Amino acid sequence: MTFSIVARSADGLLHGVAVASKFLAAGALVPAAEAEVGAVATQAHVNLAYRAQGLALLRSGVAATDVVAGLVAADPGRDDRQLGVVGASGDGASWTGPRCHPWAGGQAGDGWAVQGNILAGPHVIDAVRDAWLAGVGLPFPRRLLAALHAGERAGGDRRGRQSAGLLVVQRRGGYAGTGDELVDLRVDDHPDPVGELGRLLDIHTMLFGKPDPATLRDLTGPLAEEVGALLATAGHPVGAAGLDDALASWAGVENLEERIVPGRIDPIVLAHLRRAAPAG
User: Fold this and answer.
1) For the whole model, what pTM was predicted?
2) Residue 220, Cβ density class (10 Å: 0-12 exposed, 13-18 middle, ≥19 buried)
């Protein structure tokens, strides 16, 4: 009832799962990932135990192919299930049980595995694979999302669309470096779940993406004066603590604190401030 991709970045530092389905909240059931260990997708007749068990095996150094073989061998319900696994190195692996509803199948290669059931046809898997392989220049979460979009355009789940999810992990890549969940977004029930997932990823990137040092602007001269005036209009006047303090205070309210750099300003923050508190 679903198609998904599990994948690893070229440098091995990121792992992720992207999934779309005509099923309520597939993103709550299908994906699991652990930073610098691997990623797992369980679908069709989901076996939630695959997630923790698969990651435990990957953590102990078992290759993805052997993880899949071990999990399905021990599972009497394997004939109705699908599974995709990718580890810290090597090829991904995919399993499709013979009783999965057609069309069902999967493919795997170096650092990725794609699988799906009740699809419009095998070309859906081909489309997801091709988009993943062609997306080497994209940021890792965007590359996973592009693969989902390609599957949708190829027909996706032949029953229609309902939910989608995107999980990406990176060591200390989460909020303020306090966790490993770089991206963890779900669309549980929507007429265009993959499109909506893209909208959420845009917002996530704006709020939580790290500033590009090459684009930061010094808060001096006329720019500092403009930012100070805008902050005053927004209810955060520059006080004795200075411009940096006022900007950080405003950014905390706007959920942009991850983009604050003392003495400088991210163009994304500046654009948001200009929209939020227009001059005049």
Assistant:
1) 0.94
2) exposed
